[in-house]
Specification:
By secondary structure, this protein is an alpha/beta fold. The chain is about 45% helix and about 5% strand. Strands 1, 2, 3, 4, 5 and 6 form a six-stranded parallel sheet that branches. The model has no long low-confidence stretch (mean pLDDT about 95). Belongs to the DNA photolyase family. Pfam families: DNA_photolyase, FAD_binding_7.
């Protein structure tokens, strides 16, 4: 048996389905996929992070007596060149977004693919209702999985220690520069391992439920990027968090299962990647200038602007801020969620297709178990509630650092101040809310 172990979103040697299920002769590989890379900016932080992580994986595999062949190009071309070496199959993890499925179908025609669902806790094809149909609402989906989240620990894969490395030139590794990318400085949390982040989070988890919405505080786990690229598996995170014990453990575990739910929805409803999940036909605002001002953080709404400026600079955004800016785009500006989803996809460090699509559809009231269309976040009351002193806004927009924070929480107050030169709000919160309600009521009537 000769197998290719194709590492993709599972850049680890612990709890690895590939290293557990592999037999006999193996060739571990990673592909810097030009079909993906060619659409990215040369300073994309994710590429620097993945590159660093791939080199780390190579080192970890060497410690197991294996290695990692690193390729740059189109997967179908690379596997076409590897096929004459006589491989029986390719082992890899599952991916359910449209590009990944089409890519895998093409590769499977060259060398047989055997896929494992080890990027998530559950196998989405198993967690069904009694009538055999998939859940569309999170709470019953979660309750049905109580036998999992009530467990003290979940079984992890063990490495098969009898694997033999196939002879190949493993030393040839393309540089970032040769692939057309600059090496960029990463946020400090990405220089820490997932295990270090969990250790830090262990001292904060008791306050997690209360503190997680305060966006100027570092109260979350910061594990999303590591989970996205599989430097740690969701099963390992589950097991490590469960060992901490405490009242707020389940609250965090529940949040972990929202990630499972969105992957589950994408698997069962693949069209939701491109269409409104609930079939609503909304008359979206087509004003491109409105969208560009949102992207650039020039809406005239301090919290929205600060969130987007910070996002454009760092590729990160606090979860509550994600809800607020997506609500503002889809409800106050009445712009199609798909435009916001694509913009986030272009920059978000922890971009994961299923979670990003699911979250945007949730905010737009078009998705599975989404927020009711009449629930629209008011960015002014949100900033007053979760950042009364305006610490986040002041940290992002230097020209506002000496401004009375009360001006951040009142619509148009900055633009009307004699002491601050700030742009006028792009829309009226009250009028835009009414417009959104009318648009969504009309959409519901169309489908009635």
């Amino acid at each position: 048996m000769k197998q290719i172990l194709w590492f993709r979103r599972d850049l680890r040697v612990t709890n690895s389905a590939l290293l557990s299920k592999a037999k006999d002769e193996v060739m571990p590989i990673f592909i810097f996929d030009t079909d993906i890379l060619n659409s990215l900016d040369k300073e994309d932080k994710r590429v620097s992070f993945i590159y660093k992580s791939v080199l780390s994986l190579k080192k970890q595999l060497k410690a197991l007596g294996l290695d990692l062949a690193i390729f740059y190009g189109k997967p179908i071309e690379i596997f076409s060149k590897l096929k004459p070496l006589g491989f029986d199959e390719i082992l890899c993890s599952c991916d359910f977004d449209d590009y990944a499925k089409k890519r895998d179908e093409q590769v499977d025609k060259i060398i047989t693919l055997r896929r494992y669902s080890d990027s998530y806790i559950i196998k989405p094809w198993n967690a069904l209702k009694k009538d055999g149909t998939p859940y569309k609402v999170f709470t019953p989906f979660y309750k049905n999985l109580s036998f999992i989240w009530e467990s003290d620990a979940l079984e992890e894969f063990e490495v098969n220690k009898d694997l033999k490395l196939i002879t190949y030139d493993y030393e040839q590794v393309a540089s970032l520069e040769s692939m057309g990318f600059d090496e960029v400085e990463l946020p400090s949390f990405l220089n820490k391992t997932a295990h270090e982040l969990i250790e830090e989070f262990s001292s904060k988890i008791e306050d997690y439920e209360e503190q997680r919405d305060i966006f100027y505080k570092s109260a979350t786990s910061s594990l999303a990027v590591h989970l996205r690229f599989g430097l740690i598996s969701s099963v390992e995170v589950f097991n490590k968090i469960k060992k901490l014990k405490g009242a707020n453990i389940e609250f965090f575990i529940r949040e972990l299962f929202w990630r499972e739910f969105y992957n589950y929805i994408l698997f069962h409803f693949p069209k939701s990647e491109f269409e409104n999940f609930n079939g609503l036909e909304v008359s979206w605002n087509q004003n491109e200038e409105d969208f560009e001002r949102w992207c650039e953080g020039k809406t005239g709404v301090p919290l929205i602007d600060a969130a987007m400026i910070h996002f454009n600079k760092t590729g990160t955004m606090h979860n509550r801020l994600r809800m607020i800016v997506s609500s503002f785009l889809t409800k106050n500006l009445l712009i199609d969620w798909k435009k916001g989803e694509r913009y986030f996809a272009s920059k978000l460090l922890d971009y994961d297709a299923s979670s990003n699509i699911g979250s945007w559809q949730w905010a737009a009231s078009t998705g599975a178990d989404s927020v009711p269309y009449f629930r629209i976040f008011n960015p002014y009351t949100q900033s007053a509630k979760f950042d009364k002193e305006g610490l986040f806004i002041k940290s992002v927009i230097p020209e506002l650092k000496d401004v009375d924070p009360k001006l951040f929480h009142k619509e148009g107050a900055l633009a009307n101040s004699l002491f601050v030169d700030y742009i006028k709000p792009i829309v009226s919160i009250e009028l835009s809310r009414k417009r959104a309600l009318e648009a969504f009521k009309g959409a519901k009537n169309e489908k009635a």
